[in-house]
Design brief:
The complex is a heterodimer of chains A (about 350) and B (about 1050).
Chain A: E1 2-7, E2 12-19, E3 24-31, H1 37-41, E4 49-53, E5 57-58, E6 77-79, E7 82-83, H2 96-102, E8 106-109, H3 113-123, E9 126-130, H4 150-154, E10 160-162, E11 168-173, H5 178-186, E12 190-195, H6 200-205, E13 210-213, H7 224-233, E14 239-242, H8 244-252, E15 257-273, E16 278-290, E17 300-306, E18 312-317, E19 322-325, H9 340-359
Parallel strand pairs in A: 3-4, 4-6, 5-7, 6-8, 11-12, 11-13, 13-14, 14-19
Antiparallel strand pairs in A: 1-2, 1-9, 2-8, 3-9, 10-12, 15-16, 15-17, 17-18, 18-19
Helix pairs in contact in A: 7-8
Chain B: E1 9-13, H1 25-39, E2 43-47, E3 63-65, H2 71-81, E4 85-87, H3 92-105, H4 107-110, E5 114-115, H5 120-127, H6 129-139, E6 146-149, H7 152-162, E7 166-170, E8 180-182, H8 185-198, E9 204-208, E10 214-222, E11 228-236, E12 249-251, H9 258-274, E13 279-287, E14 294-300, H10 305-314, H11 318-326, E15 353-359, E16 380-386, H12 389-399, H13 417-425, H14 431-440, H15 445-452, H16 456-473, H17 479-487, H18 492-499, H19 503-513, E17 518-521, E18 535-539, E19 553-557, H20 568-583, E20 587-592, E21 607-610, H21 615-625, E22 629-631, H22 636-648, E23 653-654, H23 658-665, H24 667-676, E24 684-687, H25 690-700, E25 704-708, E26 718-720, H26 723-732, E27 742-746, E28 751-759, E29 764-775, E30 785-787, H27 794-810, E31 815-824, E32 827-834, H28 841-848, H29 852-860, E33 873-874, E34 881-887, E35 908-914, H30 917-927, E36 937-941, H31 947-959, E37 963-967, H32 968-976, E38 981-984, H33 994-999, E39 1005-1008, H34 1019-1029, E40 1033-1035, H35 1038-1051
Parallel strand pairs in B: 1-2, 1-4, 2-3, 4-5, 18-21, 19-20, 19-22, 20-21, 22-23, 29-33, 36-37, 36-39, 37-38, 39-40
Antiparallel strand pairs in B: 6-9, 7-8, 7-9, 10-11, 10-13, 11-12, 12-15, 13-14, 15-16, 17-18, 24-27, 25-26, 25-27, 28-29, 28-31, 29-30, 30-34, 31-32, 34-35
Chain lengths: ~350, ~1050
Amino acid sequence: MKRDLILEDGTVFTGEALGDLNEKQGEIVFNTGMTGYQEILSDPSYCGQMVTMTYPLIGNYGINRDDFESINPSIHGLIVKEMCDQPSNFRHEMRLDTYLASKGIPAISGIDTRQLTKKIRQHGTMRAVLTGVKSAQTEAVNWSPIIKDQVKRVSTKNPYVVPGRGYRVVLVDFGMKHGILRDLTKRNCHVTVVPYWYSAQDIMALKPDGLMLTNGPGDPKHVPEAINMIKAILGRVPIFGICLGHQLLALACGANTEKMKFGHRGANHPVKDLQLNRAFLTSQNHGYAVKADSLNDTDLMLTHVAINDETVEGISHRYYSAFSVQYHPESSPGPEDTSYLFDQFITEIKANKQENKGAI
Amino acid sequence: MPKRQDIEKILVIGSGPIIIGQAAEFDYSGTQACQALKEEGYQVVLANSNPATIMTDHTIADTVYMEPLTVDFLAKIIRKERPDAILPTLGGQTGLNLAIALQDSGVLEQYPTEMLGTSLDAIQLAEDREKFRQLMHHLNEPVPESEIVTSIDEALDFADQIGYPLIVRPAYTLGGTGGGMCFNETDLKEITRNGLNLSPVGQCLIERNIAGFKEIEYEVMRDHKDQAIVVCNMENIDPVGIHTGDSIVVAPSQTLSDREYQLLRNASLKIIRALKIEGGCNVQLALDPNSFDYYIIEVNPRVSRSSALASKATGYPIAKIAAKIAVGLTLDEIKNPITKTTYAAFEPALDYVVTKFPRFPFDKFTAGNRTLGTQMKATGEVMAIGRNFEEAFLKGIRSLDFNADDFYLSELTSLSDQELEDRVAQPDDQRIFVVAELFRRNYTVETLHRLTRMDSFFLNKIAKIIAFEQELQDHPLDKAYLKFAKTIGFSDAQLARITDQSEDQIYQLRKTYHVQPVYKMVDTCAAEFESATPYFYSSYECEQESKVSDREKVIVIGSGPIRIGQGIEFDYATVHSVLALKELGYEAIIMNSNPETVSTDFSVSDKLYFEPLTLEDVMHVVELEQPLGVIVQFGGQTAINLADGLQRRGVKILGTSLEAIDQAEDRDKFERMLSQLQIPQPTGESVREIEQAKEVAKKIGYPVLVRPSYVIGGSQMEIVYNDDELQHYLNKTTHIKRKHPVLIDKYLTGIEVEVDAISDGETTIIPGIMEHIERAGVHSGDSIAVYPTQRIAPDIKQQLIDTTIKIAETLKIRGLINIQFVVHHNDVYVLEVNPRASRTIPFLSKITGVTMANLATRAILGEQLQALGYQSGLLPEANYVSVKVPVFSFEKLRSVDTMLGPEMKSTGEAIGRDKTLAKALFKGLTASGLKIPFEGAVLMTVADKDKEEACTIAQRFQELGFNIYATTGTAQYLSSKNVNVQEVGKIGSDQENVLSIIEQNQVQFVVNTLTSGKKPRSDGFRIRREAVEHGIACLTSLDTATAILDVIDSTTFSAQPVVANQEVIR
């Protein structure tokens, strides 16, 4: 069965219809990771987006029960060159297309994904639609307005606790990948996951030792409540931000963010840790970035920078214990080279607690 | 961090002659490294004894030494050059071993020379089995559990600890003799008992058997800031148990989830960091297909064959970056040479699938043991790129350039199911074709998975190819079917076979339906960044990325995979042709399928198409690029074979015309030409019946040379001495049965001479004439060649020159020509004419200083040699003597007879160069790996026809103080001629016998000539193999023996009595 992928600039790709067969719109992006499709499609940061996988064979190891980054995927579409119909892996439980269909996610295969990637690279991210099988492509696409409430869609509705015997961390869920939770619980943290709208007062009432700001979808400026919350907590407990959490920390400290042309999505992005003077390979997924020059009049300093295009990849507060990175130290998928940042967070929590004890 | 300023001069060690397991990939990496170091402003001194390489060209390093790669010679170079540092990690295992030996010899301390790239400690940690295990334990990285046992009880105890299956490896037995897999206690008891008996030290290593695991490789890089990256990972389709060099490999891994990928990535990075390697490293891992359990199999602390493959597969030039890292630069400051905008500190993202297939020598060594195991047997490899697995897979198969045109071997159809099952359970070089055949017989993926342990992912893909093939048999080839077939990589030839049409018909059908491929770029980054790399592969996709310029273009066809008879020499010529084209202002386009070579480095040509070298694939590029023409004469027989088809499809063959090629290769036309020119050639006739053959042989007189008429280059050629041997040959080969004509020629003994010349059709220049040490009858590629000639009288030399010029003019050669002569009783006979680049081009170019492939390319494109300052004739000969010595890989190829004959067997060559022939020979033989002993013993066992000549050799050995052993017949003859000889018993006799003295290293040489070609498993064969397996030189040509005697004689002093005590005389 055929279906069309129509881009905002009018380009039409015709391929095989897979997954859910209904029409769906989204912002089209590409990811260059060669493994990790299950994590990618279940990463809530992709909410509202259609993801083109540049590696041509997707679905080779099927879908397993372990590698989800959220319970329900929120991507709006998956675009591949070829989707494997006979996966092979000892953990394989379900074919990718079966899974996509069961979750209402449309997909397309058999198109020149490299050509599509180049288009996205040249024109920047744009809107796209995967048309239903019966929709006539001659009709002009009726573009629906761009969604701005992605965080609301993917954040937890109610707070919950993931108990541990270590430090108490409040994790603000903007669209959390399970990987972040995994890295905290691995370090014995007692994690309380709260919704994105939770106030500073409510958070502090939980007596946290540290505050974790997670990744999440969309424009950070669409989450003003979080910015206010961070402003109020800054300096009271150590803060660690990842991805959207990083952008929100920057905004809370007076820096600015901007939309990138086509963003960074993949598992091979080199980032230099300026403090260690060393490059690390990182997993990334961001369409927005902190503007480098906007850091000038703030108390933030640049700590990490993308080697290829000098995008701001990490910041740290000059006076308070608060730092953040644009990339994903929790990997899942991607290189695990920077998981030391979670250790750094724990170290800061520990130091902060000792300092406070001394003060008392 | 900036590059180091405290070093100026760097010695780079090359890998020497090409042998199985160490081939052209080190020319590619070495060349890149030298260029990178020069780019950074260092003075580069190169030592490599392989003349066939680009690396040893005068433009690659500042100073080039083509001396034997031994500690003695390297010490001489170090003393003379006083380098500040030495870079040993780019010359394969040879480079590493030499570095260790140099350190041990104390030279590096005497003349302070720093080791760059990898420290000696790291080399030893990776290479020493026990140290490596300790390091892995320390890192908490698993290695297969093992224990050395000296009794069956110990073996059983160990089995109780870790369980079955296990592998038993007896200590110090060659090639793992006596070892085996054990699945239970009974197996273990029996194999251990046997192994303990066979082991000279009574020890066996018992190891966990991980055969059947997935074999995964990671190519990693690290700099001195401890930044480390993975360039590429690769998955072997063949499971653990088959050497990765013999495995079909795919990149990136296909069946690993991200968790498995990262698990193994972390382990690889941990290891390179622990070894503190500054440069590249290869980590091989075994992954349990049913869990996250894995084992580290091997670590190579240097660039390797796999890193060359990874470089071509990703576009990331590992050797170049490794060299820069070695001099202090770091990954975050080195630019990615592909994008030119990003940095080397990143991990390439592929948006295509790469396959690698090994190329085996069993088309030549039909009697060889073809079973695959832990000893590598492939001589070369091909790589193919596609947008899906099937495409990359089928492209790889048709790149192999052997007797299967596509994914089908007709010879398998006659085998029974059981025979086929056995052949995949005990895999050999044809296993993948056997798998296909079993799928054609409706075997299921499950069954084949059980038999082969290949991952079902790959088996499903193969099953799909076969299923579609079967579907095509009952479905007309309409546009949709044709398009789908092409998308999944079916070649026109394959479609022609399946649908019973001609390849040209399929080609026409595709024209009608407009089904043709586009070209996609290899850019390291999956199109994320803009790049301008001229590196392309074809695919049946939408967007055409190869932009055609308006410049005048020429396509040069490479030589494909390295195999016996078509080695790196042809890549050398291809590269030089491309460079010449660039100099001449043409856009030089290269097509090749070999990932190991310099020619497929995207920076060599203006445009690189990494494609199979078949008519179909070449035509696609021709149709897109519309070149002036195609040059086929540098790519060996592979390229020459394409000429006919290309011309038929209207493509201009540049250089020597197809008619001339045909005239040289077609026996009848060739004979007619020679007789018209009144040039003598050995008398001979073509026959179709056995009786007729005998008559002809009688008429001509034995010995005669027999060969099939359609085979080129000595394949299946034999010298027979009587009717019995002739009959045996004709029965053994099936030419007569299959109604193919057989050629019978007079076998002329004499000095074989080889001439390479360049001609523009009018002027024919001969850069040099080479004479062979071995008499005619030994393939020219297996003979020691000497330049300038030593035994050829001036008038004969003039005859050689005149004949060469006459033939070149008659054939209207434009480009290169190679002629083989035999000088028999002062007459010059022509044996063979090759109107193309020959194996000797790089050797001759280097020793004469004439860049032959460059000049030839100029002639091909219409430049007049005269205008370039040349005139017809032999160029002045050099004073230095140079020899080219063949190098064999017999110890890697079990059951292959080492007897030299008309069929080529060598895999590589070494050069020796000095003031006298003896000195040059000494160097050449040493460089080839032969240790020339100055005392010891020689075992002689020769055929009756050779006894007289052998006697002289024995006498000379004796004069030089060697002891002589001989088998009964030879001993009797030698004794009768007053040679003091010790007789040894036949194989199997209890006392000191012919095998036992080899086994116990009592002799330094074996001189053995062929008694008769009738019994391939004769005693002679066993003696020769025994010698190979004990690393003892076995000389099967008396000429080689004499040459070595000359060397020993001229470099040693013997004690000669003035007065002999008569009583002592025997």
